[in-house]
Amino acid sequence: MNTIGLLKRYGIVPKKKLGQNFLVCIEVAEREVRYADIQKDDVVLEIGPGLGVLTRKLAERAKLVVAVEKDLRLKPVLEEVLAPYDNIQLFWEDILSFNPPPCTKIVSNLPYSISSPIIFWIMEKIPGFSRAVICCQKEFAKKLVALPGQREYSRLSVVVGTRMRAEILETLKPEVFFPPPEVDSALVRLEPKTGYQPKNPQFRLMTHILFRHKRKKVKNAVLHHLSRFGGKQPETLLNRLEKTGLGERRVYTLSPEEIDVLAAAFFDGEEEDGTDGENH
Q: pLDDT value at position 1?
């Protein structure tokens, strides 16, 4: 497929604000399908099909491909290149507002600008998937797999780490996309896992509060957000923090279990706030 020629024919200029760096390397798409181990009974979600390079390879193996694209300018392009396939459902929606059908696998080249919200959306909206293979910015991939104490460890690392196993499969150079991004990309495999699950309903809110100041000591990070703890007096909060023995620790060294301890100390079993914030 002549990518540049196709875009010119339809008068389409990739939009940076939509994170449009279209995959043009068929070999990468083939590897994504292999990494995901697509089977003939799989229903696969693809977020942002772009020019359909990956979509076609998925359709050759899966029972059904559910492709969700926001940019209506791509409609004639995708209708043309995907015309030979009868097992693709195209939805023209913002993925963050999309109500997905049950899907067994997720294979997507994520828009870099909204990669973090998409990961949280996947965890909330598609609890039953068995494997995801995503392409994302390399630095974002490092956050997905980071462990406590590592430079890349973040709010995203904490929440993903309690729900999924994450593994970087390979690094991709900019030239496999058009236009080439300014950074390297990575393929990441995500699989649901069983293991430690946070007990306090305010675990995610506690994580969000702490990682607003991830290089600070826990005590100082908490003092920046006293209003988030239900109007409790600072002395009460500091006394509870002292009992945890975690006040002098740096936020980025905390394990999920330790964050759960802090949530229990500060929130007294309050109902889940659901606040994730936009930062990762």
A: 65
Whether the model pTM is above 0.85: yes
Cα separation, 107 vs 129, whole angstroms: 11
How much of the chain is helix, strand and coil, in % rounded to 5? 45, 20, 40
Q: Residue 224 — very low, low, confident or very high, per pLDDT cuts 50/70/90? A: confident
> Given this model, what pLDDT does residue 280 score?
55
Q: Which among 161, 158, 113 is positioned nearest to 137, based on CA atoms?
A: 113
CA–CA separation, 186 vs 181, rounded Å? 12
Q: Cα dihedral sign for 190, 264, 247, 258?
A: negative
Q: Given this model, what pLDDT does residue 187 score?
A: 98
Q: Measure Cα distances from 231 to 106, 239, 264 in Å.
A: 42, 15, 16
CATH superfamily of 203-267: rRNA adenine dimethylase, C-terminal domain (1.10.8.100)
> CA 144, CA 113: separation in Å to the nearest integer?
16
CA R_g for the chain? 21
Question: What are the pLDDT digits (tens) for 232-243?
Answer: 788 888 899 999
Indicate the domain borders of the chain. 3-192, 203-267
What CATH class does 3-192 carry?
Answer: alpha beta
In sequence order, what are the beta bridge partners of 89? Answer: 66
d(CA 22, CA 3): 9
Angle between helices 234-244 and 256-267 (to 10 degrees): 150
Q: Are 139 and 99 a contacting pair, CB within 8 Å?
A: no
Same fold, 3-192 and 203-267: no
Nearest 5°: the CA angle 36, 51, 39 is 25
pLDDT digits (tens, 9 = 90+) for 85-132: 999 999 999 999 999 999 999 999 999 989 999 999 999 999 899 999
